[in-house]
Amino acid sequence: MQRPDVLVIGGGTAALCAAISARRTGAQVLLIEQAPSGLRGGNTRHSRNLRVMHEEPTAFSSDTYPEDDFWRDLWSATGGATDPGLARLLIRRSSDVTDWLADAGVHLQPTAGGVLPASRKTAFFLGGGKTMLNALYARAGRLGVAIRYGCAARELLLQNARVEQVKIQAEGGPQTLRPLTTVACCGGAQANRQWLRTQWGEAAEGFINRGTPFATGEVLASLLQQGAVAVGDPRGAYLVAVDARSPADDGGIVTRVRCMPAGIVVDVEGRRFHDEGVDTASTRYSAWGGLLADRPRQTGYLILDARGLRAAPPSLYPPLTARTLADLAAQLEMDPDRLQASVATYNAAVRPPAEGADPADWHTIGLHPPKSRHALTLIEPPFGAYPMRPGITFTYQGIGVDAQARVRIQAGGSAENLFAAGMIMAPNIIGRGYLSGLAITIGIVFGRIAGEEAARHALG
Ligand SMILES: Cc1cc2nc3c(=O)[nH]c(=O)nc-3n(C[C@H](O)[C@H](O)[C@H](O)COP(=O)(O)OP(=O)(O)OC[C@H]3O[C@@H](n4cnc5c(N)ncnc54)[C@H](O)[C@@H]3O)c2cc1C
User: Is the distance from the beta carbon of residue 218 to the nearest atom of ligand 1 less than 6 Å?
Assistant: First the structure.
């Protein structure tokens, strides 16, 4: 198909929702996915939940999550870095995404008897993101969406706010497509080391990419160069603490390290650099991602004693362990005196909670940085360490869109036949910070809008 009505670039949530919606609107649709079929689906493969507004309990989410609660959560998570019009549109249109997914053949986990605890704000895919993708690919195929794997868009040529040509790289070599409309759903640039290096310098070498190696950002770069409105923060990245032994790409959620309150965290020189007890929320690993990025060699070590090792949840890689701190330091190729001194200084500063206070309020006195809660001494052998690095999930630079998901142009107005959905435009709504389940909801809601609008435009 050299001249499809709608060309969808990408193969994750946003792309499939756009392709299915465009096809249902009556358009001929070609979807091109850079990854081979076995690795199709981008970061969506790793996801497990989506955020949905609902005024009553549903089969998939408990209690209620009204529009204003969703809005307040979004405002607070982003610190106001959100486009209110697009955010409200997202929230309202999230209310029927579970019905839409069910109609497309996707199964969600029921609140009663599910594997993961039921949530008020999010719903979980039964079988995870990959199972959801398999259902959407099957539905797209049955509807007649043409799908090409191992087929990458390299450049979109924009003239007078119209996409005239799309240069692609396919198995047979470079080709040029001339679609009537194009929907860019190809995510961010988090797998592109060179891109990361321009923003983070040498530090980018220390990052581990938690997701797909195919988030290479060519389309994003091509559109920004040709005058698409840039949104978000070019240096922004959602980083979390992951095990430093994780693969360079695609390790997924199991690589996270989470039990910082059970011990102390030191850098490669054996020095503490942040309060390990201050953040005990379930998302604490995300604060540590950014902190690690600013340390030498982007590496830190969570140090635990036997009590901490017992408290730590099961992990992908076993902790490094030793009978003494000196032996542990040798395994970490760290100065043993330095590590022993950090632990001794910390232990000496630990104080019990005040009478009647929360038993977790063990804290330090006169220590910089302090450990404000959960400060138990590290004295019982064996000692253990988890090596950690920043794991990148996505970048915060994207392209501006309007309420029809049309790409906005710096010169004014929006492109006539170019739409965008998913992570490539998510920074319109989440300019910084994160809310669990939001990224997938953005992909579904804007994928559907973009697919329908692109098809309507193509069909005249
Ligand atoms: C470990 C992990 C866990 C996550 N868990 C959740 C979660 O539970 N809930 C949630 O809401 N979010 C989660 N996220 C974030 C979420 O997965 C992504 O933000 C979401 O998948 C974005 O959807 P998308 O369709 O925009 O991009 P993706 O799903 O990443 O898809 C992008 C697609 O574009 C393709 N592509 C890229 N460049 C080109 C090109 N030039 N030509 C053709 N194709 C191209 C890629 O191969 C890929 O198929 C998680 C992310 C990670 C890494």
Answer: yes
